[in-house]
């Protein structure tokens, strides 16, 4: 016996240790898979799969550095972080510093059980997330005093836009005018202006607080409450007048302020929008944060985005699920009311848990402290001889100064960022952190105004001596809140860390995420979100920065953003990239608005037709409508490719008004379309632009580039190809990349730290760079993979998909194939023949997979009655085989139903999923055994004992039976049910 260690096989994968850890299949496993598929190497497979005419010129130099190790990458991120300067932000405008409870940071934000989960379309395995989201909805609805809230929006400014669009849909007025408060947040006004123009809405700025009343009709109005200036006033008369005119009243409200001031619903508002950022979610240079929307009774079915409701399962027990799913864009397409197909779930969970942890009394205490700090500072500034131009306010005061720029400079010297209102006025906004520092005497604000005061102010040490006496002194007495909120027991129970920790663990244990096993969702790319990639997100140098901080404070951020933009431009073949869109659907919209801007700049105002293949994701059509375009559908042939004859006919029919074609490549059917160049050439010859949807970039990276085969603009999904976690349904980032002629029309922002160097297009997000605090994830991924590693990942993903397709082909027909009978990174399994032969539906198979320990693939998209499977490059061969074995076993179970061994209405598939409670009964009346129900592999002859032991020990137990979707829509309940409902 010797001390010699066994030899470790050396992988052929390029780029160093991280690449080997990211890609789940090593060289040995890949060879076994290649043998099954019938190819000698990954390169040989990719040569056969990817059309030669679109292949990347491999002699092109790369700007992407050679792959770094994990330690090197963290060191480089530390260096970038050090170039950012964290000062005490008092800028406000909807962004505030906050104290994230450590129990939430550790158990939600940094917990893969929460951040690696997918959108809760399979509700039986998403009950924890859904409960957290219904907590969020309840919190928002009760604070706003409205009947129903959705499960989050992308940010406040986009929520404001959605409020405007909802008002147009719901209003009885035929007017095209929307009234906007002059005291609304400036970034919201900028976004409204850009979005309204595309859909023919006329904005009218009105100083509501000054009593302005515009003449003429209008379909809706927006009031900021409190205003951007900090002003708190009573807008109830404005809402009453709007209602009498048939208009919808929208209020953008601060949730923390609503703990102390009268709710929008009590004032007569129809809709409330805003952000939950200051509920424990770091500023992060602008995001991600969970926006919100709530509506009065009667407007529930107008809500955009996602709405969680209460239904019941097969046993009659309460269960959560997404409600009103007919509103989803892949069903309604150009008739969708919004192009939003995502939410900000992880951030909404954090905000809701902040409310759970603090409860109503804790939130009131925080709000009173914030207001007290603002009121005390205003009092002391006045005492020092300054003109404080604020009377009724919550957290923001405005101060007259001799020279605003000089005052701001003194503030920066003392580590404080103030806001410039004009050359003679500055504003200070207080938050949970600055209020505590003022109270403790650690933040000396008065000295900043030395040069402006009539007498030298000095902190007298007694600033808060009379806190209780003046805590609400600057709030109008008539607007002080008297109604209760957060009355459900969940907000009044978990105030100790022990209780909170256990509640969060309990919810996480109900769900299925990547920390349990593969999530083989087609078109969704549920791949590894490595811990090293995630590490920098919570660093204060990235998390603690206001989005409108001065450029000199964010040099590290700007460098990281610039490098990532350059890398993304290179790998897609485009010239410029904007990282502002904070969702894929938003990136789509930004790209189409860029095309619109380009045509208008050339005098082609009539070019408004957008061609979209029938197979496309529904957000394509919805985005086109919101960009002011008319959708014309192009047919697909029997192989799933764009029908070239139909395309040419549609181009000819719209020769003078063709704006764009939207295609997905590889196609939504999971194949590399051979004629993509012919498609793009035909559109360009007719004067149109080509939008290539980047949803399937994971099948292309390193082998081909959108910009090289005719793409003019694309959005990318950093939460797919570039490893930002899905977070249970958000956050996401959807950058838009374009050729040089479209680049000037990419999203710009009035507060961009790049100034004139930024793009000239209007904004699509509240912050200049969207959700930048999660960009270090994608930066780290590219940095650790290098160009060669990115290419290896693509090859491994395509190999995995073809391996699954090959092994399952004799059991489930693979619906679409490309060149040489190969698929791209995903394959569509056709279950319709099985359903016809046995009565077993795609729903039965999806729910039965839960009993086998899997999240279902994508169901019935893009073809009803099918499953679209995408294994990604991150899964190892054992997990791929486990999935294949499960699908083969389920096929065998279905055949037993078809043979009459089990009835169609009572078999393991129709009864799936099975809970522990469902089998713990004395009277088991089903024709199949308990073992068949919950341990379907036990005793199988082709499964070895070690594998089966692992499966039994790692058994996932769903918390509920199959959920009745229709019941939930008929009986719409979208707030926390009483505890006795679960008795």
UniProtKB/TrEMBL annotation:
Q: SUPFAM superfamilies, from UniProt?
A: PLP-dependent transferases
Q: Which domain of life is it from?
A: Bacteria
Give the Enzyme Commission number. 1.4.4.2
Residue ranges annotated for the Glycine dehydrogenase C-terminal domain, each copy included: 793-914
Could you tell me which Gene3D superfamilies the record lists for this protein? Aspartate Aminotransferase, domain 1, Type I PLP-dependent aspartate aminotransferase-like (Major domain)
The reaction(s) annotated as catalysed by this protein in its Swiss-Prot or TrEMBL entry are: N(6)-[(R)-lipoyl]-L-lysyl-[glycine-cleavage complex H protein] + glycine + H(+) = N(6)-[(R)-S(8)-aminomethyldihydrolipoyl]-L-lysyl-[glycine-cleavage complex H protein] + CO2
Q: Where is the Glycine cleavage system P-protein N-terminal domain?
A: 20-435, 469-748
What is the enzyme's class at the highest EC level? oxidoreductase
Q: Which UniProt keywords apply?
A: Oxidoreductase, Pyridoxal phosphate
Q: Which residues carry this modification: N6-(pyridoxal phosphate)lysine?
A: 720
* InterPro entries associated with the record: GcvP (IPR003437), GDC-P_C (IPR049316), GDC-P_N (IPR049315), GDC_P (IPR020581), PyrdxlP-dep_Trfase (IPR015424), PyrdxlP-dep_Trfase_major (IPR015421), PyrdxlP-dep_Trfase_small (IPR015422)
Give start-end of the signal peptide: none
- Which GO terms are recorded in the biological process aspect for this UniProt protein? glycine decarboxylation via glycine cleavage system
Q: Which GO terms describe its cellular component?
A: cytosol; glycine cleavage complex
Subunit: The glycine cleavage system is composed of four proteins: P, T, L and H.
Q: Which family does it belong to?
A: Belongs to the GcvP family.
Its recorded name reads: Glycine dehydrogenase (decarboxylating)
Query: What is the organism field in this record?
Result: Amnibacterium flavum
